[in-house]
């Protein structure tokens, strides 16, 4: 969001540090003198650093300045990419065919450019055999290796072991 700057008569300070339209520092001048200089050049006096002592003001075309800020903000929004995280849940006692089906879903997510969270949930006595869950995750990683890479290694979070997969093109950029 673009912050509103004080311009021309909205500035209430007695003295300001002035920068002219070419970027040259003129020095500390009275506000009236700074306003007169801006008016002579048919430009605006804009307070760009209100926290400074004395505040810094610049002579510029405020409309053009705001337009360029808005344009830069729009460009940065265009370049942003939303990363979705899809989840695939497994269990330590999953059969191979079910694992292949889940891997097929994960491949589809990775091809769409989404990250995939793969979790193995342990129930009851299964908590004593977390190594089986790690083996399931390793097998799963091998199945999808041509579409994605492990972004975060498997680790326990409560009763689940979780790992994150990233699409191959993302992994190459990092």
UniProtKB/TrEMBL annotation:
Where in or outside the cell it occurs: the entry states: Cytoplasm
- Domain Translation initiation factor 3 N-terminal span(s) in chain numbering: 7-75
**Which top-rank group of organisms is this from?**
Bacteria
Q: Per UniProt, which keywords does this protein have?
A: Cytoplasm, Initiation factor, Protein biosynthesis
An MF annotation (GO) of this entry: translation initiation factor activity
User: Which PROSITE patterns does the record cross-reference, listed alphabetically?
Assistant: IF3
- What Pfam families does the database record attribute to this sequence? IF3_C, IF3_N
Which Gene3D superfamilies does UniProt cross-reference here? Translation initiation factor 3 (IF-3), C-terminal domain, Translation initiation factor 3 (IF-3), N-terminal domain
Give residue ranges for domain Translation initiation factor 3 C-terminal: 83-167
* NCBIfam families the UniProt entry points to: infC
What assembly does the database describe for this protein?
A: Monomer.
Physiological role:
IF-3 binds to the 30S ribosomal subunit and shifts the equilibrium between 70S ribosomes and their 50S and 30S subunits in favor of the free subunits, thus enhancing the availability of 30S subunits on which protein synthesis initiation begins.
Family label: Belongs to the IF-3 family.
The name this protein carries in UniProt is Translation initiation factor IF-3
This protein's species is Peptoniphilus equinus
């Amino acid at each position: 969001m673009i912050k509103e700057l004080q311009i021309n008569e909205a500035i209430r300070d007695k003295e300001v540090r002035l920068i002219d339209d070419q970027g040259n520092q003129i020095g500390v001048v009275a506000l009236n003198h700074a306003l007169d200089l801006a008016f002579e050049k048919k430009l605006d006096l804009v307070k760009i650093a209100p926290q400074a002592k004395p505040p810094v003001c610049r002579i510029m075309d405020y409309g053009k300045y705001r337009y360029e800020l808005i344009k830069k903000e729009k460009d940065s929004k265009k370049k942003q990419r939303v990363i979705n995280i899809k989840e695939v849940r497994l269990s330590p006692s999953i059969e191979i065919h079910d694992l292949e089906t889940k891997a097929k879903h994960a491949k589809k997510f990775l091809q769409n450019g989404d990250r995939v969270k793969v979790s193995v949930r342990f129930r009851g006595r299964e908590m004593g055999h977390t190594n089986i869950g790690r083996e399931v995750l390793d097998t799963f990683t091998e199945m999808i290796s041509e579409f994605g890479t492990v972004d975060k290694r498997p680790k326990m979070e409560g009763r689940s072991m979780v790992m994150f997969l990233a699409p191959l093109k993302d992994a190459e950029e990092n």
